[in-house]
């Protein structure tokens, strides 16, 4: 289903001057109209946040008001119209600049600078990832698909023992966004098949979608001019997948998990890290998981000299993976899996190389 969705996503690109756009409310939705014609498109929340940020309007304000009553939506449009009409957006040479608008159907889904690398598109790079996984005998296990981001995880059909009683599967993840919602990433990932928790570790390929300036003519010919870079990145993807799934890399990963299991944190240390990406209620839930008896969905926590439970890095990583498993938002699920991997930073193979 993920492959079908990526293949069927047809993006239309438009370069437009800010002053030649108009924002209005139609059928209860904040829309954008391109002047001088009357082409009107609804605005995806991601694109609205990008527009607001570029205009100097707090994205959280724009998104909240766009979900509100009619007058609130009109307020968003008035603010955007005023800011885009009166703000001077200039190139480094002092000339008026245009921005890249990425449209699907009748919806604006991405608002980006002209340096965005559109040719690092999902479909050719995902194909390279799938081919490498097949060569390594890795099987797809989890796909995450949103309007603005795709992710696919594949795992070797084997179970490894990292330490007594802890069994994991080892795999790789590919992730990309064609709309500026994240980098192109190839990462190692680990999965506890008994507890169904995931952690995405250090990213071994990380490409920001920034390149040369897009010109109007590039909208038609970029697929040819960028073919060599895409082909080189496809080869790099295949090589990295094979490396991440080889025996030596897996041995280093398993050793890192054992070290993470033995590496204890104080609750105060962990809470400080969790506060960077969790809400208060979520942090309280993690603390309940640590202190409650009979939590079978997590590995055992550590113990201090008084016999009290203390989190280890491995326990903490799995606790975040547990929260990710329970969230209904696919984008948030992916974010939490990345945060689960960060709790293992410095102990796994990604930092040893």
Can you describe this structure?
- With 353 residues, the chain is α+β, with helices and mostly antiparallel strands.
- It has 3 domains: 11-112, no CATH class; 122-256, no CATH class; 260-352, no CATH class.
- 42% of the residues lie in helices and 24% in strands.
- It is built from 13 helices and 14 strands.
- The protein has helices at 2-8, 45-55, 59-66, 70-86, 122-135, 218-225, 227-244, 247-262, 267-274, 280-291, 313-326, 330-342, 349-352, and strands at 12-16, 21-26, 29-34, 39-43, 99-104, 107-112, 139-145, 150-155, 160-163, 166-176, 184-192, 197-207, 302-303, 309-310.
- The strands form 3 sheets. A 6-stranded mixed β-sheet has the order 1-5-6-4-3-2. Strands 7, 8, 9, 10, 11 and 12 form a 6-stranded antiparallel β-sheet that branches. A two-stranded antiparallel ribbon has the order 13-14.
- Strand 2 (21-26) and strand 3 form a beta hairpin.
- Helix 2 (45-55) packs across helix 3 (59-66), helix 5 (122-135) packs parallel to helix 7 (227-244) and helix 11 runs antiparallel to helix 12 (330-342).
- The chain is globular.
- The two termini are 35 Å apart.
Q: Helices and strands, in N-to-C order?
A: HEEEEHHHEEHEEEEEEHHHHHEEHHH
Task: Describe the main β-sheet briefly.
Answer: 6 strands, mixed
Mean pLDDT over the residues: 90
What is the topology, as strand order, of the major beta sheet? Answer: 1-5-6-4-3-2
Which blocks of ≥5 consecutive residues have pLDDT under 50? 349-353
Rounded to the nearest angstrom, the distance between the terminal CA atoms is 35 Å
Radius of gyration: 23 Å
- Shape field: globular
Structural class: alpha+beta
Integer count of domains: 3
Number of helices: 13
- The number of distinct β-strands equals 14
* Range of strand content: 15-25%
Helix content: 40-55%
């Amino acid at each position: 289903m993920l492959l079908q969705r990526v293949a069927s996503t047809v993006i239309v690109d438009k370069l437009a001057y800010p002053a030649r756009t108009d924002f209005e409310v139609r059928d209860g939705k904040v829309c954008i109209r391109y002047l001088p014609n009357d082409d009107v498109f609804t605005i995806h929340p991601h694109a609205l946040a990008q527009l607001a940020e570029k205009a100097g309007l707090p994205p959280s304000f724009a998104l909240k008001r766009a979900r509100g009553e009619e007058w609130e939506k009109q307020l968003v449009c008035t603010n955007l119209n005023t800011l885009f009409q009166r703000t001077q957006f200039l190139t480094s040479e002092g000339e008026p600049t245009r921005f890249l608008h990425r449209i699907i159907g009748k919806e604006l889904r991405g608002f980006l600078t002209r340096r965005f690398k559109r040719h690092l598109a999902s479909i050719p790079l995902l194909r390279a990832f799938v081919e490498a996984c097949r060569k390594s005998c890795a099987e797809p296990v989890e796909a995450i698909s949103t309007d603005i981001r795709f992710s696919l995880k594949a795992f070797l059909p084997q179970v490894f023992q990292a330490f007594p009683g802890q069994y994991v599967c080892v795999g790789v993840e590919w992730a990309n966004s064609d709309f500026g919602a994240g980098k192109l990433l190839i990462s190692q990932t680990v999965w506890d098949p008994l507890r169904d928790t995931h952690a995405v570790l250090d990213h071994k390929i990380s490409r920001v979608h920034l390149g040369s300036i897009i010109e109007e003519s590039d909208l038609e010919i970029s697929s040819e001019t960028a073919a060599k870079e895409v082909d080189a990145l496809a080869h790099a993807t295949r090589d990295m997948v094979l490396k991440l799934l080889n025996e030596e890399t897996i041995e280093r990963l398993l050793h890192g998990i054992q070290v993470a299991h033995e590496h204890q944190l104080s609750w105060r240390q962990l809470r400080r890290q969790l506060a960077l990406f969790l809400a208060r209620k979520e942090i309280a839930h993690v603390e309940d998981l640590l202190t409650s008896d009979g939590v079978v969905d997590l590995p055992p926590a550590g113990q201090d000299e008084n016999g009290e439970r203390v989190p280890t890095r491995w326990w903490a990583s799995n606790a975040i993976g547990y929260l990710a498993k329970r969230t209904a938002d696919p984008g948030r699920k992916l974010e939490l899996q990345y945060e689960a991997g960060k709790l293992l930073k410095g102990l796994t193979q990604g930092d040893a190389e």
